[in-house]
Amino acid sequence: MAGQANPVERTETARAIRTGLDDAAALVNTVHAQVLSQVITAQSWKVHRDLDGFSSVRDWLVSMFDFHHRTAADLAAIARLSRKFAVLTEAATSGVARIDQVAFAVRALDKTPAMRLYARTPYRQAVPSPFDPAIQCPTPEHLAAQYCAHASHADLARHLAEIEAACQAEDELFEGLCEQALARLEVWETETGMWAIDGLVTADTGAMFAKLLTTAIPPPRAEDCQTDQPEAGTDNDSETDAEAVLPAQANRNAEALHQMLARFGADPAAPTRHGHTATLHLTCDLATLRGEDTGRLPLLEGDPISLAKARLLACEGQVIPTVFDYATGEAVELGRTRRLPNTALRRKLELEQPGGCAWSGCSRPVHWTEAHHLVGPVGEG
């Protein structure tokens, strides 16, 4: 027995066992390398799917040939990624590295687009193998193959983890560039005169836009709610049973977008092209705006519009007073942009209307209101 054997016999026995196991391991690795070559060929010809009816190579190996599940999974992983990682595949099919080591490496390097790109990008200068300085590794994949062939599984895992950590920042940048390539925004005018918007934006742009939509206009107050009255003749036709309905969020988003564009166009710091920002050009003389019969129509961006719409736009927009000679079609003099009323007129209004809003039925305090025209766009109302 082992306890009664002399030290020399025990040493000889151990040496024989090690030799036998080394030979068996080499034989197993050689067989696995041969099997992997056949599996790669079968996978490229889709033998497992088109001839034997299996959707995956792993299931094909387990069911048809009684391979162990883990061995079949490793063989299938390398075969599936053999075109992406030809160097690692060569290390496995040549028997230089075990298939489990190579399978672990290709799975790790295929985790993210950045790692796939990094693995095949050549070094500026070839890196010597840490296991044999005479072997030069031109790419990170070559270096990973050296770890598969000579390092323990723990050392291989540590090396691949370092690559993954180094690629995290590049991976985020790569994903951001992919998002930018997919981003689009289309704006077009419909037959009704309204405009349609459709698009896909990046995560950052979408988050900022969503936040702007919630901050561009204040949240609705109770008095802003529409009231749905019950039908007459029902048991719930009292005012106490009326339901308050908030404005639809989609409508509020549209209003918020309008407010953002209007503020952007009036911002002195906004980017300009040929001196213009996101503004619309309304052309209308004072007499026409007053409703006098001049024979002229207001123009918005060169297209005729109704007098009512021109008055509304003139109330809200910035005004550039211009002296225009209709006989010659020449703008004789251009004034400066101004938004009526100015500070002095605002103070005048507040002194004249201490009770607040002058609109019929409105009791808002003066500090809640904006100066506007009760009748027409002209005057001090």
How does this structure look, described?
There is one protein chain. The chain has 381 residues and is mostly helical. Among the domains are: 22-181, no CATH class; 280-338, no CATH class; 340-381, no CATH class. The chain has helices at 7-44, 47-51, 57-65, 69-80, 86-93, 99-109, 113-120, 140-150, 153-182, 203-215, 249-266, 286-290, 307-316, 343-352, and strands spanning 127-128, 136-137, 184-189, 195-200, 226-228, 243-245, 282-283, 299-300, 303-304, 322-325, 330-334. The strands form five sheets. It has a three-stranded antiparallel sheet with strand order 7-8-9, with helices on one face. Strands 1-2 form a two-stranded antiparallel sheet. It has a two-stranded antiparallel sheet with strand order 3-4. The longest helix is centred in the N-terminal third of the chain and has 38 residues, at 7-44. It is elongated. The protein starts with 6 loop residues before the first helix and ends in a 29-residue tail after the last helix. Residues 237-243 and 376-381 have low confidence and may be disordered.
